Amino acid sequence: MNDLDHPARPASTRLIGRDEDLEFVRSHFNGSVHGAALLLSGEAGIGKTAILDAVVARARAEGTRVLRANGVQFEADVSYAGLNQLLVPLFDTFDLLDPGHRDALKVAVGIGGGPPPNRLLISTAALLLLRRIAQDTPLLIVVDDLPWLDRPTSSVLGFVARRLVGSRISFLAASRVTSDGFFASSGLTEHRLKPLDEASSAALLAEAHPGMSHAIRRRITAEAHGNPLALVELPTALDREQRTAPSAVPSVLPLSERLQALFADRVADLPAAGRELLLIAALEGLGDLTVVEAAAGGGTAVEALEAAERDRLVAISATSRTLSFRHPLIGAAVVAQASAADRRRAHRALAAVLTDQPERRAHHLGEATTGPDENVAGLLEQAARLRLERGDALGAMAALTRAAGLSPSPADESRRLAEAAYIGTDAGGGMADASSLLVGARRADPATREESLHAAAASALLLINEEGDVDTAHRLLVGAVEAGGHGYDASDDSLVEALFTLITLCWYSGDPRKWEPLFRALDRMTPAPPDLLWVCAHTFADPARTGYLALDRLDTLLADMGDATHTVRVSTCAVYPDRLADVREASLRLVEQGRAGTAPVRRHLSALIHLCLDDFYKGRWDESVKFAAEGLGLCEDYGYPFFACKFQFVQALVAASRGDAETSDALCEEIVGWAVPRGAHGARALAFHARCLAALGTGDFDTAFRHATAINPLTPLAPFRPHSMTGALDLVEAAVRSGRPAEAATHAAALRDSAMARLSPRLHMLVLACEALTTPGDDALDLFERALSQVDPEDWVFDVARVRLFYGERLRRRRATKEAREQLVPAAEAFERLGARPWAERAAAELRASGHTAAATAQRKGALTAQELEIATLAATGLTNKQIAERLFLSHRTIGTHLYQIYPKLGINSRAALRDALAALDLEDVG
After folding, report:
1. Helices and strands (H and E) in the chain: how many
2. Does the pLDDT of residue 587 top 90, yes or no?
């Protein structure tokens, strides 16, 4: 609605004093032929819109297509209103998109129906449409008054503006310097417009108002402080005498107040009917003349607003039936000048007209109502549902908060505030007032416990996501649980949700004492905790001691994955027992749903981290890094910093394992930088683990030992620190290689005394390997054999290769060189496939010391035995190891060992590549 950053001037008036600014904007876009974005900032009235107008005019003259939208203060709560405004000229081109993106975009801009689209889906659809249009002609997107743009549109445009590389799209936006808008930290290049200098100010004033005396010009120039809007508009408030007589000029207020007063004076001179229409138009927000006229009781707005249009307060289009204010301050001044009673009356009139638009009607009724009114509160609650259906969680929160303020019943007020806080947990960040919503809910009705508990869980998550204060979040949630009136009823959903959230907080804290309230609550639940909650607590809190007790129940849960929330929670249970492979297909489906916009972003993130971890441990490192990058992108786009550390950890592990210590350390610094100030010591342990692995790779074993023991004491195995299991082998290796055999033996004994080996075959292998590393003589060899027999080597590539390396090193030192090579060769080949350079070099050095040559390795790669060819052929048809074993009367572990040896011979690293490799294999290679 707001077209200009300054009132219109005569056509002869040029942009005085803005040559350098215009050149900067033009050079910015001309210097980037493959997409560019620029944010123009400055105080109100500084000339931002004038710059936009000039750029638009030149772009159109050069054949560039322009799409333009303006933020409107009273439209800021109308979700996707800005996107609607921007894409109106493109409505007929939506069919260029695939049906999924087309329909999502139609629902968002209000010209289609269907299920609520995910914001990522809407953002992607908008980006795809704009890129498609730009294929035919260069495209310039111009957005004015960003602070007044509705938040969903800002999110979409921010998404688009960061993804213009490789396109013929330019993005130019304008925002006030004082704005706290969505784009304030968007990372876009920003050009700030400065006030005009004294010479330019004088030139502008002389051109716009040539009849004033020199003395008055100097006075106005001094008070305008280089603001073009003030320079042009201030003289219009002066009468004829004041324009020529300095003594007649009244004293002026500070700039912003003066301009507000100026607009108010101009509005006050209008006829009463015109002022009423302007007030209704300002509150209506969309500039729909039909609605404005109906709310005003009929009549023709064009005639009633003739004086306002003549004074250039508004622009009216009789053909499109729209009204726009010439400057946002005009609409704001109209509203500010009106009495509270006048504003309420206008809102009621608008509500009476908008009977077919329940969401907008509820908004106006809410603004018109001064006291408790359950009917209006109920309508606002229904409006919140409509906003949720359209994917506007923030709008729903606003509606619920207003509904709470109008609720006669304290219980309803508390319930609505609690629901607003809960919805905020899925809003993608940006809701820093979640804790205040919780306080408000408790204050409204301290006797209502269920809803306040629900809000406490949501607010605790928001707290660690934004402020990140884990201790405060934990204390807040524990207090709500222990003070609740739920009676520890296991069927109470709010209690169950709160305890799941408490598990998350406890893990982040890294403090064993934080888990005590959780287990007290579990013990008190009647008749018993839900299976999923119980299993999660026992596999995620202290799995080295209690995890094995939950394995049977975990198997039952894995057999029926359920909805998205159930899937990610079962997957969480599967992390430490090494069962992520069992949830891989479900996680992949969830990721695909998230990419399509049909799954909540937090569920999408959880599925991605589970896939990352599974891929890392299974040796699919490139895929793991790709999933981690996707997760970090979502964290940035949706505002989930507390989740980012997990993806950074995976990337740091891969970098450390591949010998890129610099990258790994930088990622660890990011983890520590987030975790330490917030008391998230569980997250900090991730950095210790990655740094330990990097130090092992570089041969800095003293440093590796220091990092390993920061996670885990030598004995006993750290309680309620599940990551201690993951770093156990690292600690023992670091101790052995740094000359600390006693410490290594102490920790190996602690592992043996725990129940870690009962949790999974891989962990059993690691426990035995640690014991072997600390055992002298032939007994160690038997332990290594037992360790390697626990797993299929194809399943845990890196861990098995490390154990083979340790075993081969021990055998070579006992001069069993032939047996040593049998372990070292497959270890070296595995490290090579993974790109684990430090370990590959160590294995190669051991092989050279054993007398093994590169030529021997090359010869070994050149031939398959008849049995290996048979196994490879069966595996290429899609049979599992178990099915192949049944056909050949072998064990499935033997089949896995053969495949592990076949892959390097064929020059491949996965089962999926077998068919092509066999097709290319010359039969003469079969020995």
Report:
1. 50, 7
2. yes
**Among 794, 798, 785, which residue's Cα sits nearest to residue 898?**
794
Rounded to a whole number of angstroms, the CA Rg of the chain reads 34
Answer for the pair 223, 192: CB distance below 8 angstroms, yes or no: no
What residue type is 237 in one-letter code?
Answer: A
- Measure the CA angle with vertex 315, ends 310 and 318; round to 5°: 105
Pairing between β-strand 314-317 and β-strand 189-192 as defined by DSSP bridges: unpaired
Lowest mean pLDDT among 326-340, 344-358, 422-436, 572-586: 422-436
Position of tokens 């490879």?
Answer: 872
* E strands in 731-782: none
pLDDT at residue 399 above 80? yes
> Burial, 336: exposed, middle or buried (Cβ in 10 Å; 0-12, 13-18, 19+)?
middle
Which token pair is 749? 């004994």
Helix 601-617 to helix 564-574 angle, to the nearest 10 degrees? 30
Question: How many angstroms separate the CA atoms of 13 and 7, rounded?
Answer: 12
Average pLDDT (277-286) is: 86
H or E element that contains 923: none
Least confident of 392-396, 518-522, 648-652: 392-396
- For residue range 737-784, list pLDDT tens digits in order: 999 999 999 999 999 999 999 999 999 999 999 999 999 988 999 999
Helix axes 837-849, 817-834, angle to 10 degrees: 160
Find out whether 709 and 745 touch, Cβ atoms under 8 Å.
Answer: no
Cα distances (Å, whole numbers) of residue 14 to 8, 222, 237, 317: 11, 21, 22, 25
Neighbouring-strand partners of residue 911: none
Say which residue the tokens 């070296």 belong to. Answer: 828
Q: Note the maximum CA span of the chain.
A: 111
Amino acid symbol at 666 = A
CB 382 within 8 A of CB 358: yes
Q: Could you tell me which residues are beta bridge partners of residue 174?
A: 40
Segment holding 139, helix H or strand E: strand 139-144
Q: Which of 525, 517, 522, 516 is nearest to 536 (CA)?
A: 522
Instruction: Fill in the DSSP letter of residue 175.
Output: E
Closest of 870, 880, 854 to residue 902, by C-alpha: 870
Collect all residues with Cβ–Cβ distance below 8 Å to 271 and sequence separation of at least 6: 304, 307
Question: What are the DSSP calls for 35-81, one per residue?
Answer: -EEEEEEESTTSSHHHHHHHHHHHHHHTT-EEEEEE--GGGTTSTTH
**Are 3 and 49 within 8 A, CB to CB?**
yes
Collapsed DSSP state (helix, strand, coil) of residue 339: coil
User: Which one is predicted more confidently, 780 or 261?
Assistant: 780
Residues 384, 363 contacting (CB under 8 angstroms): no
Strands, E assignment, 567-686: none
Q: What is the pLDDT of residues 432-446, one digit of tens each?
A: 456 567 677 768 877
The rounded distance, in Å, linking the Cα atoms of 669 and 682 is 15
Report whether 191 contacts 40 (CB < 8 A): yes
Residues, the chain: 927
Q: Which amino acid is at 442?
A: R
**DSSP states along 349-413:** HHHHH-TT-HHHHHHHHHHH--S--HHHHHHHHHHHHHHHHTT-HHHHHHHHHHHHHT-SSHHHH
